[in-house]
Amino acid sequence: MNTPRFAPGDVVSVRADHPPGHVRTPYFIRGREGVVQSVLGAFENPEELAYGRRNGEEKPLYRVTFTQADVWPRYDGPANDTLVVDIYEHWLEPRS
Predict the structure, then answer these.
(1) Which domain holds residue 52?
(2) Which of 6, 30, 51, 67 could form a disulfide with 10 if both were Cys (CB 3.0 to 4.6 A apart)?
(3) Residue 31 belongs to a domain
(4) CATH of the domain at 71
(5) pTM of the full predicted structure?
(6) For 39-71, what is each residue's pLDDT tens digit?
(7) Is the CB of residue 32 less than 8 Å from the CB of residue 71?
């Protein structure tokens, strides 16, 4: 396993890429900032597994929390409402 690049408490951005094919990162979360809550372990890349490609390389998976108002521009619920998404490391970048 690769050593996790991020730790709980780190602020990260989700890549705003839109590659073709099967990806496991929801469209609505791309380009958003969140906070790493935990490292869930390392697993084979599900984007490769979807095409039957197994190379044994494992990627760290993180649980990341986002503020609802930051994800949904018209969100009018409580300011402390959050959304939690599990995201693989290759989709995350340090906050710039």
Answers:
(1) 11-94
(2) 6
(3) yes
(4) 2.30.30.50
(5) 0.87
(6) 999 988 877 776 677 777 889 999 999 999 999
(7) yes
